[in-house]
Each structure stands twice: as C-alpha cells, then as structure tokens.
Here is the input.
Amino acid sequence: MDFLYFLDLSQSIIDGVLFGAIYSLIGIGFTLIFGVMHKINLSYAAASIGAAYLSLLVVSAVPAPLVYVAAAMMGGLLGWLVYLICFRFLPLDNPLASLMSTVGMLLAIEELISHVTRGMPLNFPALFASTNIELGPYFIRGDLLFVFVLGCIAMVALMQLLKRTRLGLATRAVAQQPVAAQLCGMSVNATNASTFVIAGLLGGTAGAMAGAAIGVLSPLMTLPLTVKGLVVTVIGGLGSIPGAIVAGLIVGGVENLFQFLRGVSERDIYVMLMLFVFLVFRPGGLFAAPGGRD
Amino acid sequence: MDFYLGLAQVIGIHTLLGLSAWCVLHTGQVSIAQGGFFAIGAYVAGMLTSMWGWPLGLALLAGAILSGIVAVAVGFPALRIKGLMLVVATTAFAEIVRLVFFNLTWRVQTPAGLVGPDGSLGFGGIRYFPGNGWSMLEINFLIWFLVAFVMLFLGWLDRSRVGTLWRAVGEDELAAQSAGINLTAAKVSAFGVGGCIAGLAGGVFAHYATHIEHNNFGILLATFAIAYPIIGGLSSLAGTLLAVIFIQGILLEGLRFLGDWRSLLFGALIVVVMLVRPSGFLRRSLGESFGRTKHA
Here is the structure.
C-alpha cells in the first residue's frame, strides 16, 4: 500500500463526508417526525426529491441560488400535504396504518414523478461545479463543498428554530409529553403540522442538494435515499438530531470508503453490515434519547 | 384462460408471502425481511433443481428449511430492537440479501449447458416445470395446495397454545413477560415459521418464473408482503387472502385499462383504504364471524 493509495482512500472519505450532509438532513427529517409523533414517515425522501423536481418549474425564471430556496419551500408544502393525507385523520394508536399509508404515498409520489418526466433524468443547476479547491494533496470539489455548507446552514437554522422560538418550544413540548402540552394550551394538531412543514423544508433542501451533488434528478434516487436515511436515523439514535447529523456524515464517509475498496456493487452490503454492528453494540444509537418513552 | 391461470398463480404465491408476514406481524414485529427469505428460498430451490437435478419436493423443502434457519439467525439479534429500528434492521437485511445475490456468480456445467446464477444478469434456466411437462393447471394445483396447507397449519397454530402466546407477545410484551411467557421463544419461533413459509413461496416462485434476478426481491416486494396482512386485517388469515386478491386481482390487473397510471392509483388506493378502514378488511377471523367464539 503506497502513499498514493492512501491518498486516494482519504480523498474518497473526504468526498463521502461532504456528500453525507445530504444523508444528515434526511436523517434529521425522519428523526424529527419520529420524535414528535412516534411514527415513521416512509415517504419523506420521496417528498424531498419531489420538492426538488417542483423547484425545477421555476429554474428558468429565477437565478440559480433561488432554486434551492424554492425547493425548500416546495418541500414544506409537500410535508404539510403528507401530514394532511397520511397522519391527520388516522387513529393515533394504530401505527401500522400510518406506516402503510406513507408507503402508499411513497409509491404514488414516485410514480407521479416518473409519469410527468416520462422517466428521463432532469438536469439540476449545480453551483460552483467547476471550482476545485486544493488543500495540500487533496482536491475538494466546489459543488460538494457548497452542498456541505448549505447542509450546515440548514442544520444551524433548525437548531436555532428549535431552541429560540416559540414554535420550537411547542415542538419539543409535544415531543416530550403530548398530554401535558395540550393542558398548557398547545394545539397538538397544529404543532404536528408545523413539524411536518419544518421537516419538509429540510427535506426540500436535501433533495436539491442531492440533485446538485449528483447533477441530475431521477425517480430512481428515492429508494436509496429512503434506505440510507433510515440507516442514518437508527445509527444516530431515534429522536436525536445531533445523532442524525453525526451519523449522516459517518454513513457518507463509510459509503465512499467501501466504494473505493470494493466497488459500487458491493458497497451497500458493508454499509448495512455496519448498521448491524451498531445495532448489536449500541441499539439505542450514538446519542440515545434520554428517558425513552419507547 | 391461460391469463387467469397465470393470475391465480401470482395470487397464490403472494398469499404465501402474506401469510409468512402474518406470522411475524402477529408477535408485534414489523419485519421487511420477508422479501429476503423469499429470495433465499427462490435461489436455493432453483439452484438445487437446475444445477444438481434434485426432485421438486426436496428442493422446495430444502429452500424452506434453509430460509427458516436464516430467519432464526436473524430473529435472535432482532430481539434487542423494537419498533422502527426493527423495520430498518430488517430492511438492511433484505438489502444485504439482494446485493449478495446481485454479486453471486456460480455456474455449473450440465447436459443442458452452463446453468446457474450469473451475477447481475440473474438466474435463468430454471426449467423444471417446462422440462417435466407440467401444465399451468397442474402448477396452479401445486401452488393452491401449498396455500391451503399453510393456511390450515397456521389456523391450527393460531388456535393452539402457540397462537395464544404469539398474540400475547404481540399485544403487550411487558404483560406477557410478567405472565411468564418466554419472549425469546415466541418471537424467534414466529420469525422462523415466517421465514420457512417465505422460503417455500420463493422456491415455487423461482420455478414458476423460470428466470429470477435481484430486482425481483427488492424492498417493494417486502412492502407488499407486510401490506397484505395489514390491509386484510391482522386477526384473520382469510383477510390476507382477500387482501392479495384485492391488490393483485383488482388493483393491478383490473386497473390495467388505465395503462401507465396504474401504479400511481395503486399507491393512492392504499392510502384511501388505510384512511377508510385502518384496522384492515376483516376484523375478526372467519370462524368468529360464523358464531364460534375464540378460545381464550
């Protein structure tokens, strides 16, 4: 193993960690919804990609950075729609029913995207695509760095929202004790809806980031993003946002590492095996949520 | 006529898949791994008959037993995880199985040429049925005989002590443990029985399809597997059959006239069914509807 091999290895890991910001955002979305409603929304990644597609509607009319803002807003809208259709009217004590309805939603969104675009991948505007920063022997791709910075901004904004605003306070209250929150006068339905909207904003950003990093948008991206997002959520600990952030970067780095070592057709086997190792030694996740209600 | 026979075959195989998921869902574990056991049964049974000339019955049995063993092996670590994490862990397991078969290349020279799984090109040449002159009607008889056998077996299991233990564990694990029920035995046995049934279904599927590849065993299939018992109603075996007929027969085939928009409507219809009847089609088992009360 010579020095060049080691350089290529660490370059892969760096690229992977930068891409992992996307997985972090999707993981945060899953964990946010699970933390507040104790239910899983399997259509989340599909809605994120859908939001990125919707933002392409305005791509010819606005400068490129605003496309990302548009994607985030579309994501929020889609999140609210998913809440309305799949969660609002279902009885709370039947988790399987909402799981099934989100699966139905996932299928419907994926098929809708395939229909409207006739299955052709669409180009997504990527900023800083031709810039490469040199850091010693390593190249840091400009578009990946932009995606990473965007992800960091989104995470910081989320933490500020949760810690400093009344909406964030209400979200955390309903997550901890829904009955007590209702007694304090918070509307559980409104808070749940706003959680979905916040998660949707993050998801729309993640979808746009995925489109920017890969260069194209395709309905084939929804399923791998869903699976990896769930893996990130579980490794980070259900209901824990810092956990999802760290786990997303880890999964991104490990994925690229195994792609470098074993090739692209086998890399997911090792990522899943890593999940099993985590589940055996730390079933609560990296940052297990304190005092579990579950 | 052949079209309806083919449809009946698909319904039969998916019913077996749904029944395997019913076992596991009964103990309260949501497992997306049934697709993985289906794949293992399919590849093992297909390899045994096409590469080494085993008779069909033995090959199906071997596929089912091997899937059952793997299911028990997966069931033990699954004891430590509940809820969403189990969903993710079983999804990961199903993906691992699919990717292993995606990369598996093992070809053997037989009188009919090179036969065996060929990596991403899939596993073709499982010609037991055409080679031995089975007609579609006879294949149907085999499939539905297996369905009837499994349904009777599960119905017997459900009314016996084992079924009571499974239901107790499914309703409330803490209460079941404090009543002295062995949680490990109940959950792992449910996983094992479910895995066996899924392996059996996979073996029959491989022979009916004559060509299998990794795409057939993705997360979509596993999601269908758990959709059937949930939509059909968890307390009833006949509900699973009803749900398979509903989804495969009415939704997928009956909506064929809609052309491309079929799959879209399929997803939307699942959402609608869950909104209208969240606990599934049949809420009580068929025996109860006809006046007999459930044994305690």
